[in-house]
Design goal:
0% strand, mainly alpha, single chain, globular, 4 helices
Length: 145
């Protein structure tokens, strides 16, 4: 079962799940929606909460606890959740939602800038690192540096 709140919200200010009213007010206006084709039958609020869950826990997309319909069939495939995330990340929707939420927190005087945390997990690796890697045993498969 998906945990909906953090263990200690005082030290974990990252939302694990948004209420539908919060989603509709703060996030939904910034997300790009498909111009044609079927709408998400799960609902964009629930879809966004699944994306938040992956980002919060760091789990693999294929391990997502997908809700099931009354017959026991998954409501949505995990690849569709990932596709929505990738689309919103690529077209800048998530960045717009983030910037708007920061602006809202600042306007409400709820943004604490005393502590900033930078994370370099998405930093690109140095160029040429493969050249310094250990060579393969087989000379046919090994690369020369």
């Amino acid at each position: 079962m998906m945990r909906t709140t953090a263990k200690n919200p005082d030290i974990t200010p990252i939302p694990v799940q948004l209420a539908e009213t919060e989603f509709n007010e703060f996030i939904f206006p910034h997300l790009s929606m498909p111009k044609r084709g079927p709408r998400c039958k799960l609902g964009y609020h629930r879809l966004f909460n699944l994306i938040l869950w992956v980002l919060y826990t760091g789990m693999q997309w294929k391990c997502l606890p997908i809700p099931k319909d009354p017959t026991g069939k998954p409501d949505i495939h995990y690849t569709n959740v990932y596709r929505a995330f990738a689309k919103w990340a690529d077209d800048g929707s998530l960045q717009q939602a983030f910037m708007a939420s920061v602006e809202h927190l600042s306007d409400e005087k709820k943004l604490d800038l005393r502590v900033l945390h930078g994370d370099g997990t998405n930093t690109m690796a140095e160029k040429g690192v493969m050249g310094s890697a250990t060579r393969a045993i087989s000379t046919k498969k090994g690369r020369r540096s």
